[in-house]
Design a protein that fits this description.
The complex is a heterotetramer.
Chain A lengths: L17 H32 L6 H10 L1 H15 L7 H17 L4 H24 L5 H20 L23 H19 L1 H11 L1 H6 L4 H24 L13 H11 L11 H20 L7 H23 L1
Chain C lengths: L1 H4 L11 E3 L2 E3 L4 H6 L2 E4 L11 H6 L13 H14 L16 H13 L5 E5 L7 H16 L3 E5 L3 H7 L2 E6 L2 E7 L5 H9 L17 E10 L3 E9 L3 E5 L6 H9 L6 E6 L2 E3 L4 H6 L2 E4 L3 H5 L6 H6 L3 H4 L7 H15 L16 H13 L5 E5 L7 H16 L3 E5 L3 H7 L2 E6 L2 E7 L5 H17 L1
Parallel strand pairs in C: 3-4, 4-5, 10-15, 10-16, 13-14, 14-15
Antiparallel strand pairs in C: 1-2, 6-7, 8-9, 8-11, 11-12, 16-17
Chain D lengths: L1 H26 L6 H26 L7 H18 L4 H25 L4 H20 L12 H5 L1 E2 L2 E2 H19 L1 H11 L1 H6 L4 H27 L10 H11 L11 H17 L3 H6 L4
Antiparallel strand pairs in D: 1-2
Classes of the chains: A mainly alpha, B alpha/beta, C alpha/beta, D mainly alpha.
Amino acid sequence: MMVAEDNGSFGRRSATSRAGFFKKLYTEYGQEIVILGAIIVLLIVVGSYNPRFLSVRNLNTIFAGNAYIAVAAIGMSMVIITGHIDVSVGALIGVLATISGTIAVSGYPVWLAWLAPVVIGAAINMVVGILVAYARIPSIVVTLGMMSILRGGLISVTGGDWISGLPKSFMISQLKPFGVPAPIYFMVALTLLAAFWMRYSAFGRSLYAMGGNAEAARATGIPIERRTMIVFMIHGAFAGLATILFATQLQIIQSTVPPNLELTVITAAVIGGVSILGGTGTVIGSTFAAILFATIGSALIFTNVSAYWLRAVIGTLILVTVLVDVMRRRNKR
Amino acid sequence: MHKIMITTVLSMSLAAGVAHAQQSSWTGGDDLPTNPLACDGTPAEVAAMPYDGGTPTDAPDRMGKTLTVVDIPKLVGIGYFSATSKGIADAAAEMGTMDVKTDGPTRANIDDQITLIDNYITSGVDGILYAANDPVAIAPVLKKALAAGINVVGYDANSEPDSRQWFVNQAQFNGIAKSVIDNLSDEIGEDGAFAIVTSTFTTPNQARWIAEMAAYQQKCHPDMEWLETVEAQEDNILSFNQANTLINKYGPDLKGIVGMTSVATPAAADAVTQAGLCGSVAVVGLATPNAMKPYVEADCVKSVVLWNPVDLGYAAAYVLRATADGTLKPGDTSVEAGKLGELSVINGSEVLLGAPFVYNKSNINNFDF
Amino acid sequence: MIKILSGLHAPDSGGVIEIEGQPVSFSTTRDASRAGIATVYQELLLFPELTITENIFLGHSPRRRWGGIDWAEARSRARRLLDSLDCYALDTDTKVSTLSVAQRQRVEIAKALSHDARVLIMDEPTASLPQADVDQLMDVVKKLRAQGVAIIYVSHRMSEIFELADRVTVLRDGALIGTHAIDEVDEAKLVSMMVGRAIEQLFPKVEPNIGEVVFEAEGLNCGPLVKNVSFSLRRGEILGVAGLIGSGRTELALALFGITPATSGTIRVKGKQEVIRSPRSARDLGIAYVPEDRGLQGLVKPLPISQNISMASLDRMTTFSIIPFAEEARRALAAVKRLGVRSRGDVHQAVGELSGGNQQKVVVAKWLETQPEILILDEPTRGVDVGAKAEIHAVMGELAQKGLAIIMISSELPEVLGMSDRIMVINNGSVVETIDRADATPESVGMAMTAEQKKMDAA
Amino acid sequence: MHIRKILRHETILAVLTVIVLIVLSFQSDRFFTVDNLLNQGRLMTEVGLIAIMMTFVIATGGIDLSVGSIVGLTAILMGVFWKNLGMPLPAAMILAIISGTLAGFGNGVIITRFSVPPLIATLATLALYRGIAEGISQARSVRGYPDWFYVLGQGEFAGVPTQLWILLVVAVVSALVLGVTRIGRTVYAIGFNEVAARFSGLPVDRTKLAIYTASGFAAALAGVIFVSRVSTTRSDMGTGLELDAITAVVLGGTSIYGGRGTIAGTFIALVLIQGLKNGLSWPALREKEPSC
């Protein structure tokens, strides 16, 4: 595989030219570009079919609609990049939303209701992280267990009561500074922050090392156990941030676990180019993927595709994306 | 790169192709026969039907004895079934001769529900109250319960009649349908266009209501335009997004949104509120009062259609008691249900709770569930 | 030993490590690097998806004031480090996955040096390098020594030891055998210290017994590194394949073995034209391949010796797919005895627990079970100690004597020269020359290996 | 002996299962009755069939998330073939099982031919197969099967539920295949080191293809049995079944990274899970029973 470039002892590589810049951009961010392309194509095709699809209002709906999934997928991407997985994130968001809402209606200041899910999310996932990193239980096993605990706990505690009467100031997702819904600001800012952190911090870079070659990472002096635990905590904190977007969108909070949320989040991360085997991927891709899902959902309504076929269309699109990605990687070799 | 483009375009055109094939107006209802009520509300002539429920085998004499009862709703953890459970518990406390436990699947899953019921049959209970996730799928296990001498009464969602003794019908499908469509037409006018947000097309009650609504609308409000029905699971953010997309798609053509579940209706109301369209897009639907209070109080939603689920649970518990005591027998035409008084028997083996209830600004604060 | 020094494993008991008179103890590699010890491991521990700069500075990147990584500074420091190792042409933003083994090793050394190491441990740095690169590496090591870096250089290669070392320490089975100044010892003495007994020679070449042609390839093509390759092979012959790493030697073997089937050309086995589509079809034609990367390609390490040995011939042993366990163990035991595999107990020990040389013997045993007529050995003695190396060479000789045709790919020129009856030199995917044993000298083979290269370098 | 090493997890699990069963039988005298136990066997058949094949899949280091969707797809296809296309029911059953098997084969092709990681491939087909089921069914359910069909899911043979026989046969055959045959050995070798297995001339792709196809077949069979047990066909059948099956397999000692695992372990884990599900429904109820 590597030999193609090698001509004896030391390869000669010309300095990066302008044409090379785009090529490099494409090899580096290929998956992100593919997804962005798919979003743009969808917007153009459906937009020409029904111009209202491209109305500012609908674009706001599309980009804000899955913002909480995009934010949750950021943390999930980090977990997957380090070679783990978390299937309990949907249940976690359900629990955190209930906690946040309960605090908000109990008369505590709203900042506490915003802070609580982030802190508690990190704390709950610290337990997951410890079990995965130090007790060395496979993450899929730990998080399957955590999912049952959180689901069961939520139902027995709340009994399914709705939370209403939330203070107006709590509803941060309903703000629209400069006509753009607040979740979009959150999504963009958090994605850029995370992407920046993963590119420019030593810790962020080490995630790729841990997922790519754990043994070598250990030899390099990376404290794998501690960082694995911290990654799960960061993921929990992002789940908390996602919860804020999720819980403040409506004037009521449904204290149940959103159906299939974990699957949507994992799918967004994976389609976004995060290798499920660890070691590669960026959070920009997962955010694009979350937006793509929202775009598809909206497009299906606008094109009058019977909703009966919605899941089949999404499944086909996922498959096409993955196959295209595989082909691309193959051609690169 | 261009290969990707081609693939994407191909899949898009494929999607568009399917779209055109599906253009025919389609509502999301089931394919069972419909029976729309008369437009002016004249009660339909109901032919008396012989009892078609089942009978438990060798049930012991339970007259006056304390009954061990398990209540198995479609799923636990949602407000609606919390309310029915509360009604059941209230009735049990009032009677003092019923030990009730509610236990249901955490997702509306037929298999989980069947397994639960099966387990309770083996563990030995006197009575089972259920709300079926699927009328046919649940039948064998209920028949097994009858065969084990257990009294079986359904509420909210029926099963095949011979697999249970009685079913407490919260409101007839056609009654709900009439109430929803009538309220909607009052708000959006006889020529208004509307869209539906439901949970999934496979949820039987929702599918039944939608079918009845379509039939009633055709019959009594033929000029109203049924735009489309979208699915939103039991997911409030998805419901919100779907409602938003409907608003964006139809713009000013859309006059009303109907929510079919306690999740979809408030989410649709929130979408309308946040779009600043209160008053120009009406929201009507089925929902529990607690979920709708903010929107009704803000005058964004004028009417919410539902029966009272606490009463439903309450009635179901009384029907079970009466059945176990032998005071409700096949052929009876009414049954005594505590504070609800006499309830009438319809369709052979169903007990009707009453007409659907419309919550509005004047009464919604009297309810807490 | 190396792993304890570098902090990867903590010592089990006792023992004090002193640096410049200060006793230190490391529980992590980080402690070790803080103490100024840096290690270049035998198996290169780099992250293929990261760039050269990222690999070098992973864990201790230069920071900006706000704590973020200063990529510009990191790049320029990486540039300086690479330049100091004579790697002027290597772009610091290249992903490591695209580098050759030699290039990767240079990155490893740069990484070690980036810690400002005072003690540099090099564990078998030349194990996977072709000769030309070894010479360059020698120069680099000498340069570092001149800069005052203390170097612990672990190697099996005598020539390197004598070229570089001031003092030499011999370890065997975890115990110290002795330490001598380099001028106190000669090669023979060192070898006997290492293996515990004198060895006549490392390459016990027996008189070949060459028969008729069993295998012919004509005009094989496969990808960019197998170009129009033609050769023939006789019964009882050992055909050495020499070439630089990346010259297409392994690619040729993979094509012959059906892992990446040849795209054009003809193959005749015993005069009959055949198509090799998969390893299985190769095996059924009597071709066996002992791969280059033992751990990844050769063995299923957690499985026992017996199961590894039967792996390639399993379908011939079973009836209705059912495995005869007793028969499997019996045959494995026989094979283990025949090849002298030293295991802790029986054939049920996991292969991963064996030493490198014994693992290699298991791979050979696995393929001998298939009754091959053509055996392809890819770097058969890489990462194997001197004793086992001699044993493997002896086995090769024996097999050839019995009429097996052997293709031996090796980066070690002495091995190629010592064991082959003919030497086929490959350069950039093409056969450049085939030299008979009698005419082969290190110079003639080395020239052929690098001839093309030098032309390119000059250009 | 290495056999002992592999069996260690299973032994602990078996002891644990026995303890749990004993504790449960003290909780209620109705637990340890033949009737109840047979009935529990009936209930665990579908997930059991899937989990047994999933053991093979996970032992190769793969995963199959699409099984629940294949259950739904098979059920829907059987209903459609029979009711809408007017085929005789046995033909519809066979054709539906073939379709489900083909769905598994599709997974295998995507995974082996295009080298897509199994988690992603089956994540996609999870959505795709369920989507096809929903699209075909248009939310209509098919009911009213002839009585003989219910023998499969509700009947008995020699006093034991029909489907339990099927499960037992599949379990025994699978245990033998995984334990003493070349196929099983290939599965373990792939799970530990796929490259080495390929370099040893083992039929890696063919084996993986066969395993995913078998997984599809097991899900399809489970789908038909499911329909027979609950007497109706719906497109949401089998939702979440994949997680139940994976839980059983992993609890049964199969390494999620591949290479280790036995059918015996999976089977014991199935019994344990079913026992807990069954037993834990009662204690709370008993508290409220009048004491005697």
